[in-house]
Amino acid sequence: MAFVLDASIAAAWCLPDERARLADAVQDRLIEDRAIVPSLFWYEVRNFLVLQERRKRIVPLETVKILTDMQGMPIRFEEPDSDHVLELARSYGLTVYDASYLSLAVSNRVPLATLDRDLAAAAKQAGVELFAA
Asked: What domains can be seen in the chain, in order of their start residue?
């Protein structure tokens, strides 16, 4: 079954010392299922990687490898309805960025994979199933 993939999960894949059981389970699930993301996902992942380069945790060649590996994963882009995103951001006190992931999960009726506590709490309140490890 498809699911919505939040950038917090992808960020956990990037650094060995930040691995999380949930992130590993999501990565395993991508062997047989596909993930849905808004286009901002790639900007969030790239921003995370550049910040890690600045902190000297990774080098640019590692960024290239990580992005190449991720681009080979079964991840589909879908843009959420902008009015719905605003409604969710207002209703649950989320950033518009986080609300875009929640909107996709709601509209597609699929689980949400996230390590973000606020987004997970909002998903529960909205009746969205959370991806479980």
From this structure: 3-125 (3.40.50.1010)
